[in-house]
Amino acid sequence: MLKSVAAFGALLLATFLMMVGAGLASALVPLRAAAEGWSSGSIAWIGTVYALAFTAGCILVPILVARVGHIRVFAALQTSLACLLLLLALAPHPLAWMLFRGACGLGMVGGYMVIESWINERTDNTNRGTVFSAYMIVSMVGIASGQFLLPLGDIAGDRLFMASALAFGLALMPVMLSVAPAPRPLEQVRIDPRALFRRSPAAAVGCFVAGVIFGNWGYFGPLYGKAAGLGTAGIATMLTAAMVGGVLFQYPFGRLSDRIDRRYVMGIAGAIGVAVSVAMIIAAPRTPIGVVVGTFGFGTVLFTIYSLSVAHANDQARPGEFVQVSGGLLIVYGVGNMIGPQLGGRLMDRLGPEGFFVAMAMMYAIYGGYALWRSTRKAALPPERRPDFTPVAPMSMRGQAPAEPAAGGR
CA 60, 331, 145, 149 torsion: positive or negative? Predict the structure, then answer.
């Protein structure tokens, strides 16, 4: 296993550095915007434009790669990300940040797609799962590392933006110096969200709701921590606690969904999300330990609902449709991601910090309730006809990997 992972050392190092920059920026941007005195509506629009550019990048980046190749696209996008972070520090104005932070969305999805397609092409069915698992672990460690840089600088200053830009710049080096051959151009597929909804409505609605939830979490999670009285170290710990909860519970949820109807497990995840959100609304914790424990519980399903939805969609997909299905789900997720900051911002404006979890409770209720309702409308496939559950991050284009079961197997 270690030999398989070591062969991708350069790409994993680039991933780690890129995610350090992304993790720091994702926590820093909303906190700095709030420190500037901008309204929740302005902060929400920054998140919405980022999600719009991220979603558009899923379509545009393969075209760019086909024209100039993976390495040049990766270099251009990482350089752009570094410059954009510096521009955020130089131009603290809501409209400027919508433009600059929005462009970051295109750069980030391009980085993911280039690295993941590279890994995908250099692996086969014997080691793909191992290497992608290592990739996800490195990504999460990188994000957490970036978040824990927050206490080392002043939110109102420029150094944290410089640190994020530096991480993106350093991510260039392992890729530019790698001797591995560049992969073939990214596959461009026809994406039809309406056909996806007809084929697997529970998965389509699930990915949309997951997008709303992640959009709210990404921009208003740090602001919830700030409103609850946490300092920068406490906010970084809170964000990481949610991630740790997700990592620990992906496998149990996945194993359970391989044994019973996945929609039942989606319903369970939705119920847990509602229960934790309601508990956070009622308890209204204002101490670091209370907030961290609550967000750990919240994270147990936060990072699972997307994977369950993708797995259910793959259950319904015909052979050869896995890439198309994954691409369609990511577009649906992106649309939800645009709405998430708008919903969270408005509810926090009206209800205070607990409005954040009111939005979450609503979305988890829709997620779990719709999945359970769909389970009464159509019978599930037997376990032997379903591909095994694979943890998937919403940021990932993991669907490029052929995940089709062997004939007669799972």
Answer: positive
User: Which band of pLDDT confidence, cut at 50, 70 and 90, is reported for residue 281?
Assistant: very high
CATH number of 189-394: 1.20.1250.20
Q: What is the pLDDT of residues 42-85, one digit of tens each?
A: 999 999 999 999 988 888 888 888 888 888 889 999 999 999 99
pTM of the model: 0.85
Rounded Cα distance, 361 and 356, in Å: 9
Q: How far apart are the two ends of the chain, measured CA to CA in Å?
A: 23
Are 234 and 288 contacting, i.e. CB atoms less than 8 angstroms apart? Answer: yes
Distance CA 114, CA 135 (A): 13
> What tokens were used for 253?
């949820």
CATH superfamily membership of 1-177: MFS general substrate transporter like domains (1.20.1250.20)
Span 3-25, average pLDDT = 84
- Alpha carbon separation from 307 to 194, 314, 377 (Å, rounded): 20, 11, 22
- Give the tokens for residue 11: 């790409």
CB-CB contact of 316 with 199 (8 Å): yes
